[in-house]
Amino acid sequence: MGKWTRRAFIGTGGVLATGLVVGVAGNMYVSKAIKKYTGKGMGDGESLNAWIRIAPDNTITLAVARAEMGQGVYTSIPQLIAEELEVDMSRIKVVHPQPESPYANTFMMTQKEPNAFKGYNLMEKMLAFLPIIATGGSSSIPDAFTNMRTAGATAREMLKEAAAKEWGVKRSDCRAEDGYIINNSNGAKLSYGELATAARTVEIKDLPELKSKADWTLIGKPVQRIDLPEKVNGQAEFGIDVRLENMLFAAIRHSSTIGGKIISIDNQSDIENRKGVKKVVLTEFGAAVIADNTWRAKNAALALQVTEDDGGNAGINSADISKAFDKILESPPLAISEDEGDVDAILKGEGIIESTYEVPYLAHAAMEPLNCTVLVEDDKATAWVGHQGSSFVHSTLNAVSQIPKENIIVNTTLLGGAFGRRGEIDFVAKATAVAMTMKGTPVQTVFTREEDMQNDMYRPAAKSKFRAKVNDDGDIEAWDNMMALQSVSKSVTTRVAPAIAPSAEADEATSEGAAHLPYSMNNRKVSFGDYASPIPVGFWRSVGSSQNAFFTECFLDECAHAVGKDPFAFRRDKLNDHPRFKAVLEKVAEISNWGNVGENTYQGIALHKSFGSIVGQVAQITKVGEKQFSIDQFYSAIDCGNYVNPDTVEAQIEGGIVFGLSAALYGEITWSDGAVNEMNFPQYDMVKMNVSPRVQVHIMDVDEYPGGVGEPGTPPAAPALANAIFAATGERLRSLPLKNHGYSFI
User: Fold this and answer.
1) Fold of 318-362+457-745
2) What is the structure's pLDDT at 130?
3) Distances (CA, A) of 697 to 160, 545, 555, 615, 656
4) Which fold has domain 239-311+370-446?
5) How much is the pTM?
6) N or C: which end of the chain has fewer CB within 10 A?
7) Can you tell me the mean pLDDT for 39-53?
8) Burial status of residue 297 (CB atoms within 10 A of its CB: 0-12, 13-18, 19 or more)
9) Distance (Å, rounded) from C-alpha 410 to C-alpha 396?
10) Is 3.40.50.2300 the CATH classification of the domain at 9-222?
């Protein structure tokens, strides 16, 4: 079939009796994995080779292996395919396939864009065969952009070839249009469904030519989301909506101390005598009550009297954690992420600007409570769950139940918020362990809000110490940044995929958004130290950038004000070597009318790149009291390269800003005696409608490979607001949340 290429080559695959199947292959190594594809869950028991199925009845089914958690992938990925396949979006059906090798998200793990002329490296081969089928890191579109367009284009050419043979003409004499192949010479046409069976035997030996950007009719255009109608009318199925025959419900009770363990249940018989309670169980993960509805299970779980082992963690408290950070900041670093010039020599002189910033632990607080439904039978297991990684669910069911992987089915539902929390396996493992005690009966295990918030995998607390020197011309002569926090990648990967867990010093997420800033600096150094703790930390929307943007962009403002420079001009003058950054900064200043606001109104600015996209934001606030403000407007400009659906981009930036503001204003997880103090939303508040600002988003027109959009809107929100508050009050806020400084917002 000619030269195999990296991930973009489309193979014709196996022969099906029901029509055309197209699968994505990377090279011979990956093509072997595709031939093992089973097609479970694709309907009618037929084996879909990988991504596209065109049936004789004209049904077009697309396998979208990325979780739909509100970011719009059930629409944007089909847009990529439909663009090249020349079909209307209304004719497409989306299914979430089983976790198999063709769907490996290698971009998420490698952050390398597909290249049609380079083969897989060893890491990518390994990732394709594990396989890691997951959604995160704002990687869905970067991973799909080349592959899915090529999949659609190859299917189009196969259909044209089949039609050409039918008519006795050349393929070049045919064109695809609106679900038909048309004979250019006489106008005859055949539907894709009519051609599907014949097309399945066609071999296309060369990579198809993709449409130029100027010819796109779907990509870059607003398209109504496929999942919206069912979400509006209530038919959409989230994990917590799953209902099965004879189903029971379980509620979890964790140890009251982080890392602790429940070793006995002291009133088990009393609880089991309650109305509706079927069983009380103690698993390796904690206690659970199984009942005929969630309410009864929850109340019974709360009434459990248990004996615990605190695991030696009862002494954990927030004050000691902060002191430990201070000690790390004054110690030699574990790792140096960036070291240019001689920072130490420059910073021995006078005129040094020095500050330390701090942020707390944060919970994910997804609106849909954590849940997972599992049915365990003698030789098979089935799960229904909203999860970011179907392959992680698959492996977890296998590990806990010991049922062979080939006998496990994973049904991925819609996700009611995730932000990284639903990429963890703890709630799946616990649900499986509970279901193991009720074989033959489906059991839906639900975490109450309190059990989730007090047993999360938190965004780590962190401290960041800065020293800098800026000359009278506004040039940064030296920049030194030392951080103290836990390693997120090490913590997460040790739980989920320990074989590839990095060491703390090798964790690039720790300094992402702090190292390699775009601003020109004569000398710079970024380093960090690791805080070892039993507190589990995890990926939280925008990961390291979530805190590092606050640290760096606020301290950059300090540097500007220290030498009497306008914060926007100070940044702009240091971006001459990075024109895309400069263009974003200038655009957000333009749309916000920077520096020209009314009396009692103030602005703050921030610029940050994360997950391949550059975002500039301006917060505009009005002072209504001594420490009381209204957040009137957020302006945002984003350069995410080529984008698929502008409506989705705008929505993600808007949501990212609100998510970031919730953390900036209110968010904190605190510790006393080894336990989390916050229990529910009254203690872990969110931005509500009366506080939420109007948001104006400008998408830059840049013909470059796509970046992500799910996370980049969050990091600049906190520093833009904090910088605006400084402009209004002259008080530099160096820790979050802002409520702890006496500020309120209306």
Assistant:
1) Aldehyde Oxidoreductase; domain 4 (3.30.365)
2) 61
3) 41, 20, 25, 10, 12
4) Aldehyde Oxidoreductase; domain 4 (3.30.365)
5) 0.93
6) C
7) 53
8) buried
9) 11
10) no
